[in-house]
From TrEMBL:
<feature type="binding site">
    <location>
        <position position="78"/>
    </location>
    <ligand>
        <name>Zn(2+)</name>
    </ligand>
</feature>
<dbReference type="InterPro" id="IPR036409">
    <property type="entry name" value="Aldolase_II/adducin_N_sf"/>
</dbReference>
<comment type="function">
    <text>Catalyzes the dehydration of methylthioribulose-1-phosphate (MTRu-1-P) into 2,3-diketo-5-methylthiopentyl-1-phosphate (DK-MTP-1-P).</text>
</comment>
<comment type="pathway">
    <text>Amino-acid biosynthesis; L-methionine biosynthesis via salvage pathway; L-methionine from S-methyl-5-thio-alpha-D-ribose 1-phosphate: step 2/6.</text>
</comment>
<dbReference type="InterPro" id="IPR050197">
    <property type="entry name" value="Aldolase_class_II_sugar_metab"/>
</dbReference>
<keyword id="KW-0479">Metal-binding</keyword>
<feature type="binding site">
    <location>
        <position position="80"/>
    </location>
    <ligand>
        <name>Zn(2+)</name>
    </ligand>
</feature>
<keyword id="KW-0862">Zinc</keyword>
<comment type="similarity">
    <text>Belongs to the aldolase class II family. AraD/FucA subfamily.</text>
</comment>
<dbReference type="GO" id="GO:0046570">
    <property type="term" value="F:methylthioribulose 1-phosphate dehydratase activity"/>
</dbReference>
<dbReference type="Pfam" id="PF00596">
    <property type="entry name" value="Aldolase_II"/>
</dbReference>
<keyword id="KW-0486">Methionine biosynthesis</keyword>
<feature type="domain" description="Class II aldolase/adducin N-terminal">
    <location>
        <begin position="1"/>
        <end position="178"/>
    </location>
</feature>
<keyword id="KW-0028">Amino-acid biosynthesis</keyword>
<protein>
    <recommendedName>
        <fullName>Methylthioribulose-1-phosphate dehydratase</fullName>
        <ecNumber>4.2.1.109</ecNumber>
    </recommendedName>
</protein>
<dbReference type="InterPro" id="IPR001303">
    <property type="entry name" value="Aldolase_II/adducin_N"/>
</dbReference>
<comment type="similarity">
    <text>Belongs to the aldolase class II family. MtnB subfamily.</text>
</comment>
Amino acid sequence: MDRFGWVPSVGGNISVRLDAERIAITRSGGRKGFLTREGVMVVDLHGASLTEGGRPSAETGLHCQIYRAFPDVGAVLHGHSIAATVLSRVVEGDGIVLSGYEMIKAFAGQTTHEARVVVPLLDNDQDIDRLSGIVAGRLNGPVPGYVLRGHGVYAWGRDADQALMHLEALEFLLDCEFQARKIN
Ligand SMILES: [Zn+2]
């Protein structure tokens, strides 16, 4: 994520499921491209810290929500890419429509580039509990991810590899839409 420029400064956060009750998540602050063992802590599925000292990511509640909703999800990634940040401020409404892209097939159940998928787009909110409530109704679409306006992308998968694969596909598609608008 750092190599692609998706976690600039202290942006973004990363988590993996440890078991049915616990996740490991990056602490608040720290630069993810320079992540160390000390930069990770353990919380329960409601965001309560199980590690002495330090604060989990401010957006831990959004990670926990995904793990609670999908017992088979093993990793959640969140980055602040330029494409997602800029595009989400230009697109109106509550979804970014993608069609005609071969890369759509990276998402489970999509067998053709002719498919039309909508990436949920939600207004950013510093109140994570309130935001979680709005996200809740948008989690079950074909895309294992969503975009927060002017903020960034959430993506998930059964493990860290698949979550990264989904994030790469989503970021690729968002960047295509971003570049296409620049040409136009
Ligand atoms: Zn963020």
